[in-house]
Amino acid sequence: MVHELYKAYIMKVSLCKSNPREWNMEKLRIQILPSVFLLVFILHSGPTTSQEVEDEQEFDYVEGSGKGPEQWGEIHPEWALCKNGEMQSPIDLLNKRVQIVSHLGRLKRNYRPSNATIKNRGHDIMLKWVDGAGWIEINGTQYVLQQCHWHSPSEHTINGKRFDLEVHMVHQSISDNKTSVVGIMYKIGRPDTFLSKIMGYINSIAETKEKETVVGVVDPKNIKLGSRKYYRYMGSLTVPPCTQDVVWTIVRKVRTVSREQVRLLREAVDDDAENNARPVQPINGRSIHLYRPRLRLDN
Ligand SMILES: *[C@@H]1O[C@H](CO)[C@@H](O)[C@H](O)[C@H]1NC(C)=O
Ligand SMILES: *[C@@H]1O[C@H](CO)[C@@H](O)[C@H](O)[C@H]1NC(C)=O
Ligand SMILES: *[C@@H]1O[C@H](CO)[C@@H](O)[C@H](O)[C@H]1NC(C)=O
């Protein structure tokens, strides 16, 4: 903002110089404008939240930047869980800790095509469904699909192994506003068909913080799970405020995404979020279940 005004001013001065009739006006401007700049600068650097300040990322993923993951819990009192929370996400899904169960049942997805917009939030790219896009059902509770967004590399790890990409489909229950996230991980290989469809939209909002564009009707069913097996555990949001009591479902099968798709998602966001995976968090005795169907036919 200040820079733009200053640039405009410099341009104006150079234009005026070529026109003698405006020289007096120019003298006046030279006297007044610096104080205008000062005023604008003070307004914009003060603690009051102007648009400019809001747009600036309050957290990033760079260790030692002062607002990296190890500091999130100190940035705002409301973000304290990022530091003190005992059930934080992501975690490592270590085989030894995982209890295989069949009672959880297949993940019930009841999605429908719905209008969506795509937004560059600076720390990630988010596809948001505007009207109801359907729900998933877990333990008798319905969670309505709100949005999905991408992290690269993956946030969850399996036996310490990190993958290239992870999508989070974020759901909210209507009755008690609880969050449930379905995560799918990808490694480099064949392109992901869902991402292929929206590559153009992602490109159009690349490196334009807080820009949103209308995508039109998007069917969430096209975000494929590829397997019925999934991990289930209780965790948190992986970005501030790190809210807990999030019901996590991580699909067991690691799907594929092309190198180009990962590059596009990474380059679209801010430089300090190109690597937007929070480090894994302590398990603190939490149980991790792996749902596996009883019948050999259902894999
Ligand atoms: C999507 O939005 C368009 C334009 O507002 C509307 O005509 C259409 O019915 C919507 N489609 C769905 C599936 O909601
Ligand atoms: C499932 O729901 C029942 C009844 O609402 C509750 O008692 C139980 O603790 C829930 N189980 C899990 C794993 O959340
Ligand atoms: C529901 O939870 C979400 C995420 O935790 C929060 O952003 C939203 O404000 C909550 N809504 C209500 C009505 O409490």
UniProtKB/TrEMBL annotation:
InterPro entries: Alpha_CA_prokaryot-like, CA_dom, CA_dom_sf, Carbonic_anhydrase_a-class, Carbonic_anhydrase_a-class_CS. Residues 57-292 form the Alpha-carbonic anhydrase domain. Transmembrane segments: none annotated. SMART domains: Carb_anhydrase (SM01057). It comes from the Eukaryota. It holds the Pfam family Carb_anhydrase. Keywords: Glycoprotein, Lyase, Metal-binding, Signal, Zinc. One of its GO terms (molecular function) is carbonate dehydratase activity. Reversible hydration of carbon dioxide. This is Carbonic anhydrase. The lineage of its organism: Eukaryota, Viridiplantae, Streptophyta, Embryophyta, Tracheophyta. The gene is LOC104601281.
